[in-house]
Amino acid sequence: MSGLDIGGSQLDASWFLILGGILFTLGAVGVLVRRNPLVILISIELMLNAVNLTLVTFARQLQNIEGQLFALMVMTVAAAEAVVGLAILVDIFRVRDLEDVDDLSELKG
Amino acid sequence: MTTLTSSQAISLLVLLFPAAGALLLAGRGWRLPRTFTVIVGPLAVWAAFICSVNLFLNKVNADFTYWTWIKSGAFEVPFNLLVDNLSIFMCLVITGVGGLIVTYSVGYMSHEDDPSYARFFTYMDVFIFSMLLLVLAGNFVFLIVGWAMVGLSSYLLIGFWYQRHSAVVAARKAFVMNVIGDIGMILGAFVLFVSYHATTYSGVFAGITGANGCDSSHLCVFVPANRDSSMLELAAFLLLVGAVAKSAQLPLHAWLPDAMEGPTPVSALIHAATMVTAGVYLIGRMHPIYDVAVYAHAAVAIIGAVTALFAATIAIVQTDIKRVLAYSTMSQIGYMFLAVGIGAYSAGFFHLLSHAFFKALLFMAAGNVIHSMHDEQDMRKYGGLWRQMRPTSISFLVGSLSLVGVIPFVGFFSKEQILGSAFSKPDDGLALAVWGVGFVTALVTGLYTGRMWWLAFAGTPSPQRPVEHPHEAPPVMLIPVGILAVLATVGGLIQTRALGFGPSQVSDFLASAVGKVGWEGGSSEVVVTFVTMVLAAALFLAARRMRPWSAALPWAQRLLEHKYYFDEIYAAVFVRPLDATAGLLLRDVEKPVIDGAVIETGALATAGAGGLSLTQSGYFRNYVLVFVGGALLAAAVVLVRANS
Amino acid sequence: MAIAIFFIAAVMAVAGGVGVISARQPMRSVLSLVVTMLALAVLFLLLDAQFVFVVQIIVYAGAVMVLFLFVIALLGPAREIAAGRLRFQPWLAGLFSLALLVLIWAMLQGIQYRQPESTDLTFFGTVQSIAIGLFTTYLYPFELTSILLLVAAIGAIYLSRRPSDDR
User: What number of other Cβ atoms are within 10 A of residue B213's Cβ?
Assistant: First the structure.
């Protein structure tokens, strides 16, 4: 049942899902390890893309358009979130030259 | 609530007038002009007096229940007033003498500023209300309420001039000793409730007297001892503790002399005429109990007699005029206890009435003197007042002669009736013993009263006088004194049993409440009576030359001046150990354990929060780590549960 | 043929992902992400999601990534300092990532695929079918999303005001 008939060949849905999982993990690693705030935001975008891939895969496997609709919503929200996040970063950058997100530790304690 | 009969309403009004007076003065009095207080304060008491007279004239004799306050299983407490002859008698004394004293204090307290003036009359009205509640209550609960409120009023009034340290200490001492009595009272009421399952007098007395044809509130003096007499003895002794504390008898007497720190009208009203007589009232009201509990009954007489002599001897050496009168009160109440202790109830209450007259008279006349001497109370600094303050001196003389028991003043008739009743029971050893003590006390009474008179009023003015020409008191203070002097003079004529013949209005009136005791005396009693009077009067005159004799016995002088060292003994036995215990508890229990528990809980919370706050490292990447970790955990849980 | 396309696109996506997290300069991170997005767009097309494919390229790779590029250009190139302050972070991150991978693999093992709802693919993923879904069944979320975008726009304008504008 996981087989997908695409363009005449037989692909398997699980391949797409594994790919999505790998991309998601890569994004998570990026968020956890990198210290540049911009790179962190970009890694989050990567994770969101991976999720989109999973959604669209299931849409195709189940022949249900809702998966794609959901992916569109995710995309919209991701755009909004990127906008606001970048605005905040720009605000912070106006005050100080931020290179390391660990510098932002005033909320300590 | 059904509509009240007029007697029911009037009985309630007796209580409500002083209560209304107190509330009005407490709420508004200090803001309104002084005339308001002058009118409302005494008027509340006089209105209650008029209602009491109404009840007297209508010969009301009933147990009025207004509503049920508590009803919980077998424990039922109604708000009821027992209005019988004894209650009406007490109400007349309280409101009549009280009215005169409150009117007097309009003048005496006139030096106070407006708020204090209103405060004084508020407290006086509260006191009158509480005392009336005490004597009118028809069940033990309200008796205790009135009893405790009377103690409270006493505290408030003794400590009226609260800026004085000595006054505050005295008020506290009075209150603490009264509370000891309250505990006795309450425990006694508990014992009675447990035995008879009733809180009302009618309920309890019915249980005691049983169904032998005796009606509970009427003639039930002689009751055969029944199976409950040990419980009744216990209850009687416990109630006696309360009576002893309130009436300042041995051993709970030490508060009364100190209570003289209060204003003189307070001393007159509370510590002479009314509050201290509450103990006598209690014994009289509970006479069904005491008729059965013979040991407690005997204890009443013994305590009374001993206190009478004890207080009279101390009075000989006092220099403060109010203290002489305080010890005199203690002594005279001892006489009343003596009387009710041997079963001569109406004699005791007659003496209560006559004592109210002459003691209030003496205090108020002394108040006139103190007022005009600019608050000097040391008698040695007086002297020669007879010439300068004639009306007050005459009143004081009337009171003194009444106290000594000289015919025709009322004190003679009441005191000699008591002694006559005691003497007239030759086969009762106890009665004879207390008669002996009472006889000696009468002589000592003559001695100290005479000393007081000669020191203060006769002779030449002392060189240490604060005021050269004291002026007589204003009419508002003289008239009540005069009225009481007249009452003290002619009051005896309503009951001349001491002479063996003549009217006996008081005994007849009270007979329905405390039982009819026939006058068993004969001519020998009358002879003894006159002998007592003559000897006491002789000592009165002899007191003029007292000073040389007391110098001959310095150890006696010291003993009496230290009031038989009672205060020192109490301090050593009770006060200091308790203080030490309290200090110990404070240091070793309160601070480390109780305070410690609370503080440690706070410290624990703070430490916990401090520990937890370490997770708030401020580093974004830490937070993401925790976030991811949590998500992993949740996902793993879901996975495991989905597969199992 | 489709399989080949899949694998090429997959490899490119993963390469882009690795590039995102390992690039020293943020500009290179963004560009790597663009590569990943384009690869994903191809995969979307493979999965019969034509509309999503177009939107991915135009909106995501075209608008959002360009926004990122603009911001990076505005803020200037950044240099990452070598020594980090949190010493355990990389180790723990590695651990968690490994755990994540294991978890995902376990999840994939447990999937029970259902039967597809229909077999007719002619209208699947077309603009028409998306439109029907968005404007009928899911009208409410659609409208809310537009409000969300409005709010984000307002927020961004407010956040990026110069301090002197606050009076």
Answer: 7
